[in-house]
Specification:
- With 365 residues, this protein is an all-alpha fold.
- It has 11 helices and 2 strands, in the order H-H-H-H-E-H-H-H-H-H-H-E-H.
- It has a single domain, classed as A middle domain of Talin 1, CATH 1.20.1420.30.
- Strands 1-2 form a two-stranded antiparallel ribbon.
- It is a multi-pass membrane protein.
């Protein structure tokens, strides 16, 4: 997505359409049901929702280009995380109980990002440039925090004694939520202040020839970003009903709902990461990809935990044995991929194969 030139009409139209749809649904008290008219509503909702998410990420990119790296990547990640928390909380805490949705979505994000997105970015970059460089120091910080967060939120709940797995007791969940927030906060301080140079590749930052955005365009992007995020949050309830109906109608396994939520929120950011890889800025791709995983665990789990506690809902976090094996494999593979600071197409292909295995096992466990 380009951040230069005139503002794309779609980035203005879709937030407006989303607000209009929210107003119509609210005024008419529309309640989605699986029917012919419901199918039309679902199609309209998905088109508007996807368009609005893309618009939100576009405006986040405009602002990110203005403020530079790594703050720009951080802003993109936080914008997507707001959408993710809204969708997960709405579906999980809705009328139909889905206590494992947060786990399924977080696990799906880790697999999509660390295997699917990272693999495709490395593979595409390797095809065009043979090898690409990443900063080992920054990748190590990403992976150390990510591995710790993923283990204490997705694996450890299976082995605690206070409550039978795969759930934490209220005290344990509160402690883990505080720890993940603390880890993520210190990571952000490290990324943006203490060791900013660990995350900024040679292609990042402003050159002397870069042109700053006019204040009016900057203000427009800020306003439309906030409007788009608000619209997505307000449409999350209807989206949850459509997802539930679709999963029930197709007979898909419950974990597919988490994958759909993850795909929706990651699609625009994935486009930005792929564009960066094609432009030989793999470091930005990795910042976007691994940053998404960290933000998902560091912000989503505590937010959903608070909602579950307030509304007295059970939160299932522990993965089964199959998911744990895939998670450990992802950890080991990521360390090998980023350990030398240079990547090639074979690293990318291996990550893509692991992601294909994850998708296959969803339907043929």
């Amino acid at each position: 997505m380009s951040v230069k030139g005139a503002t794309p009409a779609s980035s203005v139209i879709f937030p407006g359409l989303a607000v209009a749809l929210v107003a119509i649904v609210t005024a008419t008290h529309y309640d989605f049901t699986p029917s012919a008219s419901g199918l039309v509503f679902a199609a309209v909702l998905l088109v508007i929702l996807f368009g609005t998410v893309f618009a939100a990420v576009h405006h986040a990119e405009v602002i990110a280009h203005e403020i530079g790296e790594p703050f720009g990547t951080l802003l993109l990640t936080l914008a997507v995380t707001v959408i993710e928390v809204a969708l997960i909380a709405t579906i999980m805490l809705g009328d139909k109980a889905a206590p494992a949705l947060a786990r399924d979505t977080v696990f799906a994000v880790v697999m999509i990002v660390c295997n699917g997105l990272v693999g495709i970015c490395i593979f595409i970059g390797g095809l065009r440039y043979r090898e690409q460089d990443v900063l080992v120091s920054g990748a190590n910080l990403y992976l150390s925090v990510l591995f710790t967060m993923a283990t204490i939120t997705l694996v450890l709940p299976n082995y605690t004694l206070t409550s039978p797995g795969p759930v934490y007791s209220a005290v344990q969940l509160g402690f883990v939520s505080v720890v993940t927030i603390l880890l993520y906060a210190v990571f952000l301080y490290t990324q943006t202040t203490r060791h900013r140079d660990y995350f900024v590749g040679a292609a990042a930052g402003f050159s002397d020839d870069d042109v700053r955005l006019p204040p009016a365009k900057m203000a427009l992007s800020v306003g439309l970003l906030l409007l788009a995020l608000l619209a997505v949050v307000l449409l999350a309830k209807k989206f949850s009903l459509v997802v539930d109906a679709g999963v029930a109608a197709t007979g898909a396994p419950p974990a597919v709902a988490g994958v759909l939520v993850a795909l929706l929120i990651l699609l625009p950011e994935s486009v930005a990461a792929l564009s960066a890889a094609r432009a030989n800025d793999l470091q930005k791709s990795i910042n976007l990809a691994l940053g998404s995983s960290l933000a998902t665990i560091g912000m989503t789990i505590p937010a959903v935990a608070v909602a579950a506690y307030v509304l007295d809902k059970q939160l299932v976090l522990g993965l089964d044995a199959q998911g744990t094996v895939l998670l450990v494999l992802t950890f080991v593979l990521s360390m090998l991929t980023f350990g030398t600071g240079r990547t090639n197409i074979l690293f990318g292909l291996v990550h893509m194969v692991v992601f294909a295995i994850f998708l296959f096992l969803l339907f043929v466990p």
